[in-house]
Amino acid sequence: MPLHTKQQGSLSIIGLGPGRREHMTPRALKVIASSEYVIGNALYLDPLEPLLTGKTVIRSSMGKEVERAKQAIELAESHAVAIVSGGDAGVYGMASIVLEVLEHSNAYIEVEVIPGVTAANAAASRIGSPLSGDFAVISLSDLLTPLEVIEQRLDAVFSVGIPVVLYNPKSRGRPHNFALAIEHARRYLGAETPIAIVRNALRDGEEVIITTLADVENIEYAVDMHTTVIIGGKESRIWRMGNDVKGIITPRGYHHKYVY
Ligand code: SAH
Fold first, then answer.
1. 120-256 adopts what CATH topology?
2. Residue 170: which of 124, 244, 210, 223 has the closest Cα?
C-alpha cells in the first residue's frame, strides 16, 4: 500500500448567522476550530476573535470576493481552509463565487457548505411570524443585478401578495432603491400593509420599527445597509399584545380549518 504523504486539504464555506456566537451552528463552530486558515470580511471576523487564536486569519474587504475565492481554493489544496460569510453563505454570500471559481480551476478538493441563520429568518424572529408561508426575498443591490431586472422581480412578487423580504435596502451608493421598491409595493398592496424595519437583528445595536405602507416614508431614515425590511403580504397583519405593537403575523391559514 502506498503511503499518502501529501497532506489533503479541505474547503469549508461557512455561514456565521446574524452576529452572536449563540446563533452560530455547532457545526460552524467545530469546523472553524479545526481550520488552519480563516478567510473573510473583517466585519464578520472580528466578533469571532476568541475562536481564531493560532490560525492564520486573512481579512478581506468588500468588492474583493473573486480574489478571496481564488486564494481560498489555492490554500485549500493542502490546508484546512474556512471561508466565512455573515448569515448564510449561500444567500447573497460567498458560496456561489467560491464554487464557480473552483469549477474553473483544476482543483479537486473536499468542499462543505455549512448553513447559517440568514437575515430574513433573524429579522423575522424579532417580530413574531411574518413569513409563515410562501414568501420572497429580493436584494435591492444593483451592483451585480441591473436595476430594471430588480424592478421586474419586485412587480412579480408584490403582484402575488406574498410577504417580501428586502436585503441590501439602501446604501450611500444607491440611496433611492428603497423608495423605488416602496413605489412598486404600492401598485399592488393596500395602505395598511404592515412593514417591519429590522436593523442589526440579533446583534448589538438592534432596532425594530413596525409601520405600514402608508407611513413608511416617516421611518425611511432608519433604513440602511445593516437593515432587513419585511413588507407584509395580503394576509399579513400587525400583531398586538394588549396595547403594544409586537410585530407582524402572517396567518398560515389554520383559522380556515379550526376554531381557536
Ligand atoms: N449572507 C447574508 C446576507 C448578505 S447581504 C445573510 O444570509 O444574511 C447583506 C444584507 O443582509 C444587508 O444589507 C442587510 O439587508 C442584511 N443583513 C445581514 N445581516 C443582518 C442583520 N443582522 N440584521 C439585519 N439585516 C441584516
1. 3.30.950
2. 223
